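Standup notes, structure subgroup. Blocker cleared on the nicotinamide-adenine-dinucleotide input:
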Amino acid sequence: MIDGKIRTAVIGCGRVSRTAHYSTLKDNDDFDFVAVCDTDKSRAEEWGAKNGVRAYTSVDDLLDNEELDFVTVNVPNGLHPQVGMMAAERGVHVMCEKPLGMRLDEADELIRLCDEKQVRLFTVMQNRFNATNLLLKNALDKGRFGELLTCNVTVRWHRGLNYYSEDNGWRGKRDMAGGVFTNQSVHYIDTMQWLVGAVPEYAFACMSTRLRPVEVETHGSGIIKFKNGVIGNLDLSVLTYPDDREGSITLMGETGTVKIGGKSMNKILEWDFATPDPEDDEKVMSADYEPPTVYGFGHIEMYRRVARVLKTGRGVEDVPDGREGRKAVEILNALYQSNDTGMPVQFPLGSEE
Ligand SMILES: NC(=O)c1ccc[n+]([C@@H]2O[C@H](COP(=O)([O-])OP(=O)(O)OC[C@H]3O[C@@H](n4cnc5c(N)ncnc54)[C@H](O)[C@@H]3O)[C@@H](O)[C@H]2O)c1
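Run returned:
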C-alpha cells in the first residue's frame, strides 16, 4: 500500500497523454506527477517543460533515476507488454493504455511478471465507467433483458491517409497497432464481453485492407459466440464516406433492446423494456453527456479508482486489471487467427487461463 502521494511517470508523450493523462494526473491529489519519458527527445523535452516535470528519452534511465510507484504506458500498442515489464521488473505498478498488448503470449508474460513482482497491473478501459454503460449494466444485472440474445457493435468511422502516416506510421503496422478491430474497436469489444458476461466459445472474422497503403485491416466483420449462447456481431470500418458516422453497441434480449452510441458510448439511443422500471428509466436522459473527444471523460475515473487500489488495497474489482484487459486481447487474437485461416477459432487461446 502506498502512503502519501503516488509518484508517477507518464511513458509516451503523444496524443493520448496530452488529451487524457497529464491534466487528469495534475488534478488528482493522490498522484505526484514527477516525470515523462519519450524516445522522441523533442517531445520528451516539450512535455517535460510544459508539465514542469523531469524528462527522459529512455525507459531504463527513467526507472534508474526516479523513485517511482507507478507508470502509465502510453506508447504504441505493440510495445505495452515490453515497457510494462521493464517497470514491473523494478517493482513499479503499471497501467497500460488500451489494449493490454497485441499478442496474447506477451500479455500473459506481463501478467505473470506483475504477479511475481507483486505489482498491480491495470488496463485503461475507461468506457466501462460511462454513465450510459453503467446504467445498461445495471439493467442487465437486474434481469430486465430476460434471456440475452445478441450484442451488435457497429463502428463506421473514417481515418484518412494522414492518420496512418503521422507518428512514424505505427498506426498502419499490424504488430504495433492492428487496424479497425484493435485500434478503433477494442473498447467496444471489451464492453461487449463485459456486458455479455460469459467467456467466448468460438469466433470467426473476415477482414480486408483497402484504399490505404497500410498493413492493418481497414474494415471487416466478425462473429463471437459466447458460452451463454449470446451471439456478438461486429461490423467495423474506418473507410466510411465521408466521415465518422456511427460507433454503437446494441444489446438485445427477450424483453429489452438498448442501443448506446455517440462519440464514445456516451448517448443512449434506444432504451426499450417490456417492464418499466421508473427508477432506472428516469436516469436515461441524464446519463447522456457530451465529451470533447472520442476519449470521453473516463480517464478521470480510471485514475480515481487506481489510486484507491494502490493506496488502500480496496476496490480491486472496480477497476480493469491485467486479466480484464487480457479478455479483449484473447478475442482479438482469435479474430485475426480466424481471418488468417478462414476458419472459426475455438477458445480458450493461450496458456494462462
Ligand atoms: N484509451 C483511449 O481511449 C485511447 C485513445 C487514444 C490512444 N490510446 C492508446 O494510447 C497509446 C498511445 O497512443 P497515441 O495516440 O498517444 O500515440 P502517439 O504516437 O501520439 O504517442 C506515442 C508516443 O510514444 C513514444 N514512444 C514510442 N516508443 C517508445 C518507447 N519505447 N519509450 C518511450 N516512448 C516511446 C512515441 O515517440 C510517441 O511520442 C496507444 O496504445 C493507443 O492505442 C488510447
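Discussed briefly. The chain has 13 helices and 14 strands.
Next: hand off to the docking folks.
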